[in-house]
C-alpha cells in the first residue's frame, strides 16, 4: 500500500511539474488584442499624410491638409492654404470620384502640397480603408501604388 501511495504521489508530482507545450504567437499583446475596426469613410477627418511616395510636412504657420466626406455627398477640407469644397460619388465599397474642387485662392508656403492634394482628388477613382488609413487610387490596376495616404484623426 505504501509503495502504491508513493508511486501515485510521484506520478502526480511529475505531471504537476511538466510545463505545457509552448506556442509562438509573435507579439503576445497583439495576439490578445482584436484588430482595429476600419474607420468610417464618412464623417471622419482624413488628414493627408502622403502624396505618391512623398511624405507631407506642414511648414511653420501652415495648416494641416485634410478631407471630410459627408454622408450627403459633400466633400470639404483644407488644402493647406485654402479651404475647399467638392462633391463625392461613392458606392460605399471601393469607388470614390470627386467633382472639380472649388477653393479660395490664397498663397502660402505650402501651395505645392495643396496643388498635389487637389490633383489627387481629381484623379481618384477608388479607395481602400485599412484601420485608420484611407488610400486613394487612380483607375488603373487594383494593385497599383496609391495616389495618396490619409489618416483618420478623431476630434475630442
User: H/E order of the elements?
Assistant: HHEEEEEEEHEEE
The structural class is alpha+beta
| Amino-to-carboxy terminus distance | 72 Å
> Total strand count, please?
10
**Arithmetic mean pLDDT:** 81
Name the assembly state.
single chain
CATH fold category name of one domain: Lipocalin
Helix content: 10-25%
CATH architecture of one domain: Beta Barrel
Strand content: 25-35%
Helices, by number, come to 3
Rg over alpha carbons: 27 Å
Query: Unreliable stretches, pLDDT < 50, 5 or more residues?
Result: 1-26
> What's the overall geometry?
globular
Tell me the name of the CATH class of one domain. Answer: Mainly Beta
For the largest beta-sheet, the strand count, sense and barrel status come to: 10 strands, antiparallel
What do these coordinates show?
The chain is of the alpha+beta class and 156 residues long. The protein has a domain at 45-153: Beta Barrel (Lipocalin). The chain is 22% helix and 30% strand. The protein is built from 3 helices and 10 strands. It has helices at 2-17, 28-32, 111-123, and strands at 45-51, 54-55, 66-69, 74-78, 83-90, 96-98, 102-103, 126-130, 133-137, 148-153. Strands 1, 2, 3, 4, 5, 6, 7, 8, 9 and 10 form a 10-stranded antiparallel β-sheet that branches. A hairpin with a 5-residue loop joins strand 5 and strand 6 (96-98). The longest helix has 16 residues, at 2-17. It starts with a helix and ends with a strand. This is META domain-containing protein. Residues 39-137 form the DUF306 domain. InterPro entries: DUF306_Meta_HslJ, HslJ-like_sf, Hsp_HslJ-like.
Amino acid at each position: 500500500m505504501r509503495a502504491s501511495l508513493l508511486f501515485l504521489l510521484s506520478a502526480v508530482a511529475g505531471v504537476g511539474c511538466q510545463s505545457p507545450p509552448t506556442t509562438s504567437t509573435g507579439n503576445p499583446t497583439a495576439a490578445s488584442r482584436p484588430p482595429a475596426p476600419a474607420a468610417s469613410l464618412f464623417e471622419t477627418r482624413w488628414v493627408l499624410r502622403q502624396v505618391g511616395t512623398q511624405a507631407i510636412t506642414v511648414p511653420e504657420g501652415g495648416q494641416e491638409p485634410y478631407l471630410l466626406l459627408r454622408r450627403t455627398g459633400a466633400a470639404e477640407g483644407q488644402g493647406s492654404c485654402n479651404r475647399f469644397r467638392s462633391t463625392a460619388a461613392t458606392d460605399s465599397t471601393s469607388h470614390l470620384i470627386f467633382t472639380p474642387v472649388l477653393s479660395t485662392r490664397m498663397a502660402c508656403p505650402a501651395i505645392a502640397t495643396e496643388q498635389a492634394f487637389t490633383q489627387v482628388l481629381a484623379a481618384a477613382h477608388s479607395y481602400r480603408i485599412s484601420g485608420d488609413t484611407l488610400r486613394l487610387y487612380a483607375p488603373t490596376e487594383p494593385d497599383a501604388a496609391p495616389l495618396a495616404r490619409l489618416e483618420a484623426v478623431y476630434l475630442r
